[in-house]
Amino acid sequence: MTGTSISRTGARVLVDQLKVHGADKVFCVPGESYLSVLDAFHDVDSIQLVVTRHEAGACNMADAYGKLTGKPGICFVTRGPGATHASIGVHTAMQDSTPLILFIGQVQRSSFEKEAFQEIDYRQMFGAMAKWVVQIDDADRIPEFVARAFHTATSGRPGPVVIALPEDMLLDEVSVEDTPPYAVTQAYPSPNQLNQFETLLNQAQRPLVIAGGSTWTFEATQLLEQFAMRHHLPVCSAFRSQDYFDNNHPLYAGHVGLAINPKLAERVREADLLIVLGDRLSEATSGTYSLVTSPVPRQKLIHVHPDALEIGRVFQPTLGIVSGMMQCMEALVTLPASSAQGAWTEWAGKARQDYESHIFPGSISSGVDLAQAIIALREVLPDDAIVCNGAGNYTAWLHRYFKYRGYRTQLAPVNGAMGYGVPAAVAAKVVHPERVVVAVAGDGCFMMSAQELATARLYNLNPIFIVVNNGIFGTIRMHQERDYPGRVIGTTLANPDFVTLAESYGAYAERVETNEAFRPALERALKQSVASVIELVTDPNMISPSTTIQTLRGG
User: Fold this and answer.
1) CA distance 117 to 379
2) Predicted structure pTM score
3) Domains of the chain by range and CATH?
């Protein structure tokens, strides 16, 4: 234990623990159930309280913070409706393996089990959605539970922790010491595993690396590049992990996820050794478990993951290694250059050629061609720009045509959560106010969190929001046109005037209706000191980068 034991309220003890463990940002929507905690924050200069307009936005911002920093994103919401609104952020953090701690105000202890106002049993509600769920009924145990929460959220496979705080417990006066700061615990590859790794690598004729998942750092990605160059290995990114390897590098082979390059998909199938670093091989990355078959892959599989329970859970690997990514890459870069690497030169070169061919579009569509807009983004934005998105068919253009050049320049939800891009961009600006931040959002995705423009205004932040307006829920319409032709229902949108809406929040706004108009609009937005919204009017017929609604209808 550390510090002196002085009498403090539970609320003060809680905020002091956040300071001990290095929290510097807290995202919240204020609530009466944790009013005493808000008061305790009043006297703390080292923690910035970021007040959002919706609990989903607050928890998504905490998730984005966790992705950007590797530290737990901290979110506070009130009981009942506040917690249910915030649950999307917990689900995202779990499937994305993001460190996050959600604190929820709770009814007073004497009201438990009476269905009191806004009462929910959070152990049941979040039990299958979080790494750990706890309710602190004794203020003396706040330091213990908060230390465990930070450790749990960051160690092994990172993820969300949920802590319920009974309102009256926070008012109890207790004398308890602070704990020391938390420390992250990760496993390392064993010498025997490294020997097996080296043997499998030397035996391979068509090896392929897939990097994704969690516990990466900038230093770990640099070691990954060294490892790939030493052995001349083609490297792919897992779904929404495209910033783990410089897309301009000659060994980068593309994105293994939704709307994958068909040639890359075939290359994954043809590989005789898959080296999967950090990723779970989720449904999106594994091609619905067809590119990599479950339970036994057709390829030899080296699966490195920080969670022992993940190894062998879905895929039976040839070699399973439990390790954090920094610990893994520090070990892998010590392996001598493979005796077979000369035979991989053509294999890696062809993979790169296929990637380069895939990121240049063919014919230009009417209105704003989204491919041309994304190409303009990759040509205009600086290398360290952070690009955010939520979910929808518009993301297929972004993932295909944009080039991510550095670690943590992509913020996107692996769990496919709509409404993520806008709050993620706000959080990115909170964390990195000096960097350019751009959110690309469909019209459906944008309207799920547009109110966070007010948060950007409150904190004088200037992210750029690009709204792809085609007037439909694009992903669902595509599936609808394919599976139920001629029976369109429920996928048409009635949108506001996005320029007027943005201006009402104090943002700079433009509507773009031609390809030629986008780049000048983007350059003007980059000069603004306030948030900017650029509405792109696109043709709904262009339902994906590779097909149209007319084609799906057989026209």
Assistant:
1) 54
2) 0.96
3) 7-175 (3.40.50.970), 191-358 (3.40.50.1220), 370-552 (3.40.50.970)
